[in-house]
Structure formats: structure tokens, C-alpha cells
Amino acid sequence: MWNKWINHNELQSELKEQMNDMTEREQEDAFYKQLDFGTGGIRGELGAGPNRMNIYSIRKVTTGLAKYIERNGIEPKKRGVVIAYDSRHQSSEFALEAAKTLGVHGIKTYVFQELRPIPELSFAVRYLRAYAAIMITASHNPAEYNGYRVYGEDGAQLPPAEITGAALENIEDYQSRKRTNLFIAQQEVINLPSSNVLKFWLKDGSWFSVRPSGTEPKVKFYFGVKKVTENRSEERLQ
Question: Could you give the CA distance from residue 151 to residue 118 in angstroms, rounded to a whole number?
């Protein structure tokens, strides 16, 4: 991987200079793995290498988002993606890089011209009826970090990949009356009246749902657990 980067003819000059100054330990840390897509996105130190935040990691994760949008048809591409950024180092450059990558796939983008907070991005994706949103930020991480978060059409961060060890397979949003399969990026209509309820289905057949109380200022959760024995189910429920 190091050789692939150092011999890349179009590698940014500042990244090549940084690579030439790296110690062996720094080389190993920057190149031994890819940045993981964690809670809603990626984050890491700025610099050269697949384990760092740079224009290449931005292009890679944005290409993944673009392919997800493409699998859902023409309408999501037309609705587009809203992109915002904060005052972190290279945030505005990363925002533009994400927009250009989406543009390669024919996906419309709305890019803020100035720094904007996350709540304004969450409002904008709903106001514009966009299909998704990107926020360039590393939130509470140290100054040498930056990050990339992805938000859905509801303005919320993407859900976790798994819950208590089981993969999250389907999300049912009874307010928008949509069921989303996360594995094949497919949506279908729920033929029930609209209501303020979310239901999450796990790969092992378990589920949980959440809704606001109709009479009190509280949120209610419901759980359904599927295991081969009652004792295993009780353990899973705990």
C-alpha cells in the first residue's frame, strides 16, 4: 500500500512530502488499514495513507454513498445530497471533494458557502427534500483530526450496523410509511396509516420499536427477542 501511494503520479505534493518525512512507526500506523466507517461515518488524523483523513478517503467513502443512492433509482439522484462543514482543517476542501465525487455519478448537491452547524444541516436536508446529507466535522476529537458523517433524508445520522452483536437488517418508519432494507438498499411502502413509530429488525429475527407516549412526556420502547430456547431469549433480552 505504501508503494502504491508513493508511486502515484497525481499524489498531492504536500502528502508526498509528508510521506518522505515519516518515521517507520508513522508509516505503519498510516498504512496498515483503511479508516473504518463507524458511528455514522469516518474520522481520523489528517495526513497521507488509507488510515488518515485526506481527499482520497473522502472520495472513497463518497463513492460508497453514491453507489447506495444509485441503487435506489433516478429520484434519489435528482433529490440530491446536502453538504455542510465546520472550521476544522481542510473541511471546506473535503466538502467540495465530496460534491465533485457525487457529481461524477450525476447526483445533485447543495453545498453551504459558509460554516454551518449540524442542526442546520439536519433542517436543510428535510427543507430541500434531499435524499441524504454529509457533514465534514470531527466534533470533539483533537485538532489534528477531521471527519465525515452521513445523514439520512430525515436529517438523522445513519443507524448502527449491528445491535448487541446482531446485524441491523430493516428499519420501518411508520411516519413516512417506508420500510428500508439496509443490505440491499431497497425501500417499500408500509400500507398502514401514518404514525410516530420506528421499528428496527435484526438479522436474527429480533426487533425493537420506539414511540412517544400518547398521554405522558416520555418515550416507550418495545422488544421482541427470538432465540432457540426460552432461557436464551431471556439472556438476549437482558
Answer: 10
Instruction: Write down the pLDDT at residue 103.
Output: 97
How do 132-136 and 109-111 pair as beta strands? unpaired
Residues with a catalytic annotation lie at: 139
Q: Which residues contact 100 (CB under 8 A, 6 or more apart)?
A: none
Higher pLDDT, 185 or 195: 195
Reading the block at residue 79, the C-alpha cell is: 433529490
User: d(Cα 113, Cα 97) in Å, to the nearest integer?
Assistant: 14
The number of beta carbons lying within 10 Å of the beta carbon of residue 69 is 22
CB-based burial label for 222 (10 Å; 0-12, 13-18, 19+): exposed
Which residues have a Cβ under 8 Å from the Cβ of 235 and sit 6 or more positions away? 227
Rounded to whole angstroms, the Cα distance separating 175 from 35 reads 34
The pLDDT assigned to 52 comes to 96
Q: Given phi > 0 = left and psi -120 to 50 = alpha, else beta, which region is 75?
A: alpha
Can you state the angle between helices 91-104 and 55-71, rounded to 10 degrees? 40
Q: How far apart are CA 11 and CA 15, in angstroms?
A: 7
Instruction: Give the model confidence (pLDDT) of 11-53 as tens digits.
Output: 999 999 999 999 999 999 999 999 988 767 899 999 999 999 9
